Amino acid sequence: MGKVLLSVDKGTTNIRCVVFDTAGRILSIFRRDNAPTYYPDGRVEQDPKTWEESLMSLLSEAARFANSQDDDVCSISLTGQRSTVIPLNGQGAPLHPAIMWQDTRTDEICSDLKKLESVVFRKTGMRMTSVFSAPKMKWFKDHLPDIYNKTWKMAGIQDYFILLLTGTLVTDRSLASRTNLYDLETGTWSDELIAVFGLDRHILCDIVEPGAVVGYLTQQVASITGLPSGIPIVSAGGDQQCGALGLGLLNTKTVVANIGTGAYANRLSEKPVYDPKMRLYCNVSAIPGKFITEAQMLTAGVVYKWFHEEFYPSELQQSDLFAEINAEVKTSPPAANGVILLPHFRGAASPYWNPNAKGHFCNLDLSTKRGDMARAVLEGISLDLAENVSLLRKVGSTVSTIHVSGGLTNFDEFVQIIADCLGQPVIKNHDCEATAIGAWISAAVAIGICGTYDEAYSAAVNSSDSQTFWPIPERQVIYALLRQKRKKLYRALTKKMA
Questions:
Q1: Which residues touch 121 (CB under 8 Å, ≥6 apart)?
Q2: Tell me: the pLDDT tens digits for 166-190?
Q3: How far is Cα 292 from Cα 283, in angstroms, rounded to an integer?
Q4: How many angstroms separate the most distant Cα atoms in the chain?
Q5: b/e per residue, 186-209, with b = 16+ CB within 10 A?
Q6: Phi/psi-derived region of residue 12, left when phi > 0, alpha when psi is between -120 and 50, beta in every other case
Q7: CA angle, 439 as apex, 136 and 7 as ends, to 5°?
């Protein structure tokens, strides 16, 4: 009889449960699509009950798989999207649909508090934007005071999962650092920032280290799922921090990029890093005591998905769903026959931080084909990423290694475009489950399977099972010119819309 660990990853549009053995090998993956509702006015919400149902269903399926293999589940490691807010009553029940991280209803709140943004940044390493939790909490207080007054705690999704599985409600530092309320220097909730947003301290969860055992599976959940009660539950850290860990962000000379619904480029530091121009953010790492400097793009893979759905109706099976669009991308040359995309479909994050920015296709004419537009989507994402990696180079030592992960990186041509835009080799592991691997690494250290994070990473990731994409010189020239054109285009469009 063997032992297995479960990594539960709550993304923006789905929940996955990945079954690992104690050597870090993936044995099986179970998934439930679980997308939020996007409203035309910028609201993005979801009923937390749907998460509970999906979570219990996935754990039940994983339990059946483990039993079929005669394996014991010895831990559940949790990771997920950050900065979503759920108001919970004293019994731990949601009082309102969750306000998701992409929700922009709090733009006005952030605008009203703009004069205090530098105060917030100095303590948190984060701008004040609608992405983060504190403005959402204030929105409840300002617009739904009855719900706010009934609230026991304002929880994130990962915190809520911990509560469902253990009966205990806590948040780890990597998640707390995404609220606009966490002081990076003291490692505590900041009374000054709580006052800035006009909140009450009691609504905030107690803080634990990422990678901590936060409780044990309750008998109630065990009876629902078929898992054994009492197994340790680990809060592995936010999804991007875990993704960075799973990609090998273990030293200060590596940059990792996780490209999913949005995209994030990260590098590690031993102490908080504060970009004087507030273009980059600083978060707590999934490795206790470490920090991550982060550049963020709000929309990446979701734009390619949107373009595919709108322009490539298909009856093909799921495994072949993107075959047609990917094939047409390859028929379009670098620079997409002149078509340019600015992929700011829900505003621009790093380095511009402009919530009013919009997505733009430019330079279309009657010769433009949809494959040109599809390639322009991937080039737009890649060039935004290149812009942000160049910023990360400026705030630390030399970048010697770049790793990429995420669903879009399954398409090799996209990874090649990234390498050409960066002008530097890019490493892609053939196993693109970086976030789940990071959660496994965290749990492996937490329950004593491995002694260090480096040891756990080496166990889980076979360096020979990777692919290096080298930049093509003639493409580098093309994309360097295109990058300058895009900067001018963004400035012109921003000025026109002002």
A1: 127, 128, 274, 278
A2: 999 999 999 999 999 999 999 999 9
A3: 5
A4: 66
A5: eeebbeebbebbebeeebbbebbb
A6: alpha
A7: 95
Q: Are 173 and 113 in contact (CB under 8 A)?
A: no
3-state class (DSSP) for residue 33: strand
Sole residue written with tokens 């059946």: 64
Coil vs helix vs strand at 370: helix
Name the token pair of 285: 């790492």
Place of tokens 């807010």: 85
Handedness of CA 304, 310, 311, 315 (dihedral sign): positive
CB of 48 closer than 8 Å to CB of 34: no
Rounded Cα distance, 181 and 308, in Å: 38
Cα–chain center distance at 371? 28
pTM: 0.85
In 3D, which of 57, 75, 78 has the Cα closest to residue 226? 57
The confidence band for 66, taking pLDDT boundaries of 50, 70 and 90, is: very high
The residues facing 255 across adjacent strands are 267, 402
